[in-house]
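Quick one: sequence plus zinc ion SMILES, need structure tokens.
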Amino acid sequence: MRKGYFAWLLIFWLFSINCFAHITKGASHQQIESTATAQYLGNEAILFTHQKTKILFDPFFHKNFGIYQLVPEEIKKAIMSGTTPYNDIDAIFISHAHDDHFNAQEVADYLKRHSATKLFCSKQAAELLRPLVNRKIAEQQVVSITLNYQDKPWYKKFDKLIVEAVRIPHAGWPSRAEVENLVFRVTLNETATVMHMGDADPDDEHFIFHQNYWQKRFSHINFPPYWFYFSAEGRDILNTRVNAKNHVGIHVPVKVPSQLKKGNYQYFSEVTEQRKVILE
Ligand SMILES: [Zn+2]
Ligand SMILES: [Zn+2]
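Reply:
Sure thing.
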């Protein structure tokens, strides 16, 4: 009788341990799934990671015009050689073909070394890249996006990524209207959505036109150029138009404008600075 009682107690104890292990494993697994990470690399360069999926925005450029933050040489080398955490990059996104966002030669060198990485860029950037890469790279890795002002947004689904893009004019519009500036909205593992606005112009005329597009998908984090914070219209676009939970300003000068420091704004200015992005 007593023996039987102990045997049952033992079985119950083993069962509880097993359950507890499952619960804790489940919780930590859920925790990993419910966060993504953004790391700042300079100017508008960002590494965004969800689980094992990694993407880069505007990582290769040379010019800072004496104002902006370059990607430090050692980080550039680490990206180029695929050193952790810059290994196994699924895709690179280029907002536009300006020298403080894009260097065709470096991007070409990267694609040669990392044949599994895709590149998403405007037709303008793809044309600069074309003479520097072979046909195989051009066909298999480079995704050239042709978008005109107020065109229907671009959409493509890949295995781990949903890539959407809309052409929003470059800041200073209507001057520089020829620059193909792309606002990307990328969803990783159908779970984490990030938006990168390049050098977008903070005029609601560009954004209201795509009202349905913004409403169609919620972004967990958005990276606007910091000048959106400096006008009521820019702030309205962020807060009421683009359907994003958090905004972190980028393209911030090395000498951070005092207006930005004083305001209650989120922005990146320190290279390797990170943000955890809660996915809910
Ligand atoms: Zn630009
Ligand atoms: Zn720029």
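The pocket of zinc ion (ligand 2) is lined by residues 98, 100-101, 199, 251 (CB under 6 Å). The chain has two domains: 1-30, 37-278.
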